[in-house]
């Protein structure tokens, strides 16, 4: 069974990673992918492998909107078709590279690596908070050495904030777990996992301005909404103690999107919209990105690498992990992923006349 | 078949490697192990893996005699039981880490990674010469890139002293093999391999003071006693020419204990008791450790890594090696190890209703 | 099926790589090989592995024409027979290392690693242009990270000169493929692949003096003659426009010989005889070697490593590559190699009573 869901949109890159001129290479779902932009700025994605002798096209050169292989000079257009073969008047009909549907949306470039017929842009998850310029949205990328589902596990189980991130974003709540009145709920609704944590009457201020005057006690809430395979919207808000926990007044909305690089290494794309520090210009923006990126690189990334090392290629559930109450969101996500993987394997199996989905053990 | 004997004591660490405060991590028998000492100085060993999401506990922090996981804050006592789970009043009953029996003896910390019911401290091999303060005992650790049995092969076949170690401890006998009257015997007795080399009438002095006045000819003898899986006591003595080779007057007793790290990398723990250079204080002790450690790191370790590379994962006997007379001790040890491995596999196999030990090919 | 043809001559080293004194180690066909010269300068090759405990003999020391193992002192003669075993009057009869037939010819040391009975020096491919001192022949060695057949593919498909090597040896022909009258032919004759490229009426001079007065238009031709497993003779010539393309007046003859190091790493041995820059002495020779070596190291080597990475351990044809007209020579060579591999596997299979060659799928 493939370790990846194929028929879905994945983030391939942040918008500013793919420039106007350069050829950009990234491994996604264990396949080499070439990304670039046409002269009109449209993103293009194709398999980063010449069909002749398999050189990386990303090491070739751009000629207008086309790419020329550095090994023997074959040229390909944005649709992957060969436009020129040296020493032949017409390139052979089968000279083509697989191209992938791509859509640029919400500051991110999305790619569909499954059946192209099913690549409906309406299926791209909503991260429209990253389009709201008044919230000065930011996007960034970090890779980590772990299976992509470890990213789901990590980002869906936020008690780790108060242990793993004590010195950065989690240190303001030393009594984590013992706050009177604290609640946590997780549920599945319309194919999404929703979880909410509510912590009443916090007196110590959070890392960033949360909209409640400094020093004043507040109620803190955060919601995580997850949709397969690995798209999370994390919304954090605060209200004066006892006020309704209105979800339409968050002080920060963060996007987390994971794309497999290989079975044991992953890309983490994140985006942030916020009400704080919006007026500092590019310098403050850069500092915020460095802050969040640094946390992931120095705290989350290494521990996921450790977990990957400990798990090897075993399935999480086969290792009989201890399940804690706050794991509910992550476990619900794991189950939905397993279901999707089984469906894709089942469809594939049926075509081959082997086992159907009903027989797949998840 | 496991490449390791499980139901036996192994050295996990030298006593001074596991300090009062720090958490100490070491891979043993291809499992991550956490070692530390309680406030009373008692050594503790447990699997270095949180049962929740498999973080290394050794990367967490100590809270009194307990260990707190850095990922989500679970706490475990010296017996491996979870003592605190954030967000739960009582930790789940199954929240526990596997702990291992450990005993500190002869300046070494011994671990039993097989069936804990069988962990009888009386089975710990005798290295009591390391307890004799009058012999100023030393212990040290070096790792090498080779299967643990290559350590047995190396340390049981001491003719290599005169070839591999010509520039350090073996160079004083350039006519090795041609000394008139030299004898070598190896035998099995009470589950141990004993070998003795006797070289009469040596005129050139050895590296260290051997108790015979310098310049005076002497008879040199050395005994190696081996017990499974990889414990060796190497005793070296000298007497004036023709005097009885009394074994109770050695000038140096060295312990060699090998513990597998993985199937292809091993820990070598050594200890030394001696009559020479006992009055130089810590500085001379440190120099002696550096001397012996350096020999192993620069001469034995690299050649075992080479041999491992050449052998791959093949069994020694399957490679049809040339057997020399002086290999007797090493071969006897290999056979006893093979027998022990087969016994453990046989027991396991029987439980599974497969092959019994009688059918195992060694 | 072995990835290597066994019953054939391979280049083991350039003549000047194996000096008078030193032991020289090189991995060939995934076996460690020791090379050295006797006192008479005769090259010797044997398995670089002591039959006792598998140390690398190349790490031992020379004693006259013999080699002494550094681990336990066994000594072996040039024929691989053990001449001395410490602690034994006579070495055991089976104490021997496999030796390999070697022949020094055409500035190269050739080795036969298959059945020694079939090692006929008459089968060594002709590279006698490297013996013609008037053409000031040069030889050199470079390794690359790719299967040895990628070397054939690369060196048989010379259109890559004008794409991969634009900044070095191929840059003088920017209109590659569009030259009016250009022809290419490939054919098999007497077990060899011959290919010829002819480009008429070139006005821009090549990198090196081609014998036609500078600035004068000329017709350029090059021939490649390939013989299994990976021996190529590349002959390049030029004549004034319209003159017969006489093949006996080349301005440069280059040898390319590939020897597998492992299945995914290879040795490239090259030699050059030329009419240009013959009078500059050793300094110019060294500059020429650095020039050609550098091209291979910086341009060919990296792209073959990329191709290897993309292909993994798949067979080229299983990947359904696009075939271009100029691939004819390389494809013919691939087919002949497949045939040879099948023959050797078939012979082997027959002995084992399994499949014969008729059933081997190539």
> In the CATH scheme, what's the topology name of the largest domain in chain A?
Naphthalene 1,2-dioxygenase Alpha Subunit, Chain A, domain 1
> How many β strands of chain A by DSSP?
18
Low-confidence stretches of chain A: 351-362
Strand content of chain A: 25-35%
Largest two-chain interface: A-C, 23 and 24 residues
Total count of helical runs of at least 4 residues of chain A: 3
Query: Fraction of residues of chain A in helices?
Result: 10-25%
Query: What is the total domain count of chain A?
Result: 2
CATH class of the largest domain in chain A: Alpha Beta
Q: Widest sheet of chain A: strand order? A: 12-18-17-16-15-14-13
In angstroms, what separates the terminal alpha carbons of chain A?
11 Å
Assembly annotation: homotrimer
Mind telling me which CATH architecture of the largest domain in chain A this is? Alpha-Beta Complex
Give the overall shape of chain A, derived from the CA principal axes. globular
Helix-strand pattern of chain A, N to C?
A: EEEEEEEEEEEEHEEEEEEHH
Q: What is the CA-based Rg of chain A, rounded? A: 23 Å
- What is the typical, i.e. mean, pLDDT of chain A? 90
The SS-based structural class of chain A is alpha+beta
Tell me the name of the CATH homologous superfamily of the largest domain in chain A.
Naphthalene 1,2-dioxygenase Alpha Subunit, Chain A, domain 1
Biggest β-sheet strands, sense, barrel of chain A: 7 strands, antiparallel
